[in-house]
């Protein structure tokens, strides 16, 4: 069942950023959206991560296995891919659009919008969107749930532990500055309300 903001297909360039995926999968688990990917995207992410960290294959495999276990229904089988895919700036990205359209996604979440022109994806009912914009959209759907989910994500970190300030800094390092700002504003409003209630 799709989450409150619908289904979103996650591109490989998002999947390789564990910090971003941690947030997205936490919000998906909270029911804010339905994540989708494909074996091709998982393979691309594996190849990209291995290129960055050739000595860390076991950790990479473990990370991607955890991503897959997070949602057993997220992987779109090739048999469900859309048969007709429009020409893209990079033809090698056709599998992303085919899987997203076949899986019933509304969004293609990617750090590279140039590879997925909105006008080309629109006839398939797809919208390309940056991770930061996507997370801000989820926040606008239910800010209270997003804030509670992020608090729980940070509280669950044990090895090593993480503060909310460290979480926000990590968001900014991964191109999620607007989402971090929305969270900070929400925290400030909560603190103000608590001070007002105590006076």
From TrEMBL:
Residue ranges annotated for the VapC50 C-terminal domain, each copy included: 131-184
Record domain PIN: where: 9-113
Keyword tags: Hydrolase, Magnesium, Metal-binding, Nuclease
One Pfam family named in its UniProt record: VapC50_C
Record-level Gene Ontology MF annotations: hydrolase activity; metal ion binding; nuclease activity
Highest taxon in the source lineage: Bacteria
Protein name from the UniProt record: PIN domain-containing protein
Magnesium among keywords: yes
Organism per entry: Rubneribacter badeniensis
InterPro entries documented for this protein: PIN_dom, VapC50_C
Keyword rRNA processing: no
């Amino acid at each position: 069942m799709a989450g409150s903001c619908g289904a979103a297909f996650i591109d490989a360039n998002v999947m390789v950023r564990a910090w971003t995926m941690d947030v997205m999968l936490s919000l998906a688990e909270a029911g804010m959206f339905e994540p989708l990917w494909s074996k091709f995207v998982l393979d691309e992410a594996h190849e990209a991560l291995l290129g960055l960290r050739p000595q860390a294959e076991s950790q990479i495999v473990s990370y991607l296995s955890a991503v897959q276990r997070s949602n057993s229904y997220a992987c779109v089988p090739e048999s469900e891919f859309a048969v007709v895919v429009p020409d893209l700036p990079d033809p090698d990205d056709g599998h992303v659009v085919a899987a997203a359209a076949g899986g019933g996604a509304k969004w293609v979440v990617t750090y590279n919008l140039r590879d997925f022109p909105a006008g080309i994806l629109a006839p398939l009912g797809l919208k390309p969107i940056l991770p930061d914009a996507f997370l801000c959209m989820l926040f606008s759907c239910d800010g209270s749930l997003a804030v509670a989910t992020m608090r729980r994500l940070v509280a669950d970190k044990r090895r090593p532990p993480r503060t909310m300030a460290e979480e926000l800094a990590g968001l900014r390092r991964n191109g999620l500055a607007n989402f971090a700002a929305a969270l900070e504003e929400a925290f400030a409003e909560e603190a103000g309300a608590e001070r007002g209630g105590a006076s």
